[in-house]
Amino acid sequence: MLKRTLILLAVVLALVLSACGGGEPETCEDIADVTVDLMQDLIDDVEEEVGDMTVEELNATGGDLPSVEKFENEATKINDRAIELECSQTTIESLVTERVHRLEATTPIGQFMIEAIRSGGL
Question: What residues does each domain of the chain span?
Fold first, then answer.
């Protein structure tokens, strides 16, 4: 189930690479900023849900997490806003890449997620 969850996250990130935050984004740069905020929220939520589990331990549990559904819902809203602002996927990807250094984690799962995001695998 973890693989399915990570694949789902990868699809959502590939299609959306966007997030929600306080207030509605007004520019493509705002979309990128809130994207990183959403990614951090996802990391924080997953870390809280699974604690210090390793990727292997989480995989053994099935890996269905409420944080994934929350992420998908928020990402969809921001994707719609990015379309309204006519932000291309290429522009959003570039702007987000410039910002991923902001991501932080305290658990093995969180670190795994950050590395996957940074390498483009999530």
Answer: 2-118
